[in-house]
Design a protein that fits this description.
This protein is α+β, with helices and mostly antiparallel strands. It is about 45% helix and about 15% strand.
């Protein structure tokens, strides 16, 4: 009987250890961010920077689900979602996601998210537009310096004073543009202007001769920066026709020759990015 009781105790201990180990492994697995969602976040960021906001928003929403273990990454995703939906002209979703991002960010600054400068500038412009205030970062109170540390600090200050004339002043980022500070030639999001650019001269795209007889048709979307003078000063392909026939180049060459009445905001002429669709049909 004693042997039977010992065996039972050993079995109970064995199963208890197995249970504790499996629970520990499970909690560890859940505490780690799935690489799939990290890759999806990277893909979504690339789509956003390429101004492919539909694909970006779709991937960001999936990534948000899997990145809930990391507050910084989740705040990052919500801010990108807010910007994506703003450019997709869905103000309600844009404001909702931006507010969620601000809540997750708490009392930390946007710089902690490691976003590109262009994205940070867009956020700094758009958050006040929706009356979303970020909390002021908390400042830590340093303990009084020790005598030795104070001596070193004084020595450093005197050294800095000597070299001050040889140092260049640090460059500061320009402040974000608000609606009451718009100047002629500023780049403004398309949804924020009062009047959209209107084409006054359209140059048709020429069907590439190298594709003659191929039967290829399709659409090329050329994202175009329209200047305050109504000229196309920069272009980039956001949707193209694959292949070596030259459809994308033909579309860009045509769009660069278009002329516009520029976009305005409060009567001020501004630059905007405008997507232009060029349709290629088979030649008859």
């Amino acid at each position: 009987m004693i042997r039977i009781h010992r065996k039972r105790r050993e079995l109970y201990l064995f199963f208890a250890l197995v249970g504790v180990t499996s629970l520990a492994l499970t909690s560890f697995a859940f505490s780690q961010t799935d690489p799939f969602y990290l890759r999806l976040l990277e893909k979504a960021q690339k789509s956003f920077l390429a101004r492919n906001y539909v694909d970006a928003a779709h991937d960001f929403e999936i990534a948000a689900f899997g990145l809930n273990q990391d507050i910084n990454l989740q705040a990052n995703v919500y801010f990108y979602l807010g910007l994506s939906h703003f450019y997709l002209r869905d103000s309600e979703k844009s404001a909702s996601f931006l507010r969620r991002g601000a809540e997750l960010l708490g009392d930390r600054g946007l710089a902690i998210l490691g976003m590109p400068d262009s994205v940070l500038r867009d956020l700094e412009t758009l958050l006040p537009f929706y009356d979303i205030q970020l909390a002021i970062p908390t400042q830590s109170v340093d303990s009084p310096p020790k005598p030795e540390e104070e001596k070193q600090a004084n020595a450093s200050e005197s050294s800095l004073e000597k070299d001050k004339d040889n140092q260049q002043p640090a460059k500061k980022d320009p402040p974000p543009i608000t609606l009451d500070q718009v100047k002629e030639g500023d780049i403004i999001p398309l949804d924020m202007v009062d009047t959209l650019p209107a084409a006054t001269e359209r140059i048709p795209a020429i069907y590439p001769s190298s594709a003659s007889g191929s039967g290829i048709t399709g659409i090329v979307v050329v994202n175009s920066l329209i200047s305050e003078k109504g000229r196309v000063i920069k272009t980039e392909i956001t949707r193209g026709i694959k292949g070596v026939y030259g459809f994308n180049q033909a579309a860009e060459q045509a769009v660069r020759r278009w002329k516009f009445e520029p976009a305005t905001i409060k009567g001020i002429k501004v630059k905007v990015w405008l997507p232009i669709r060029i349709v290629f049909k088979t030649q008859e």
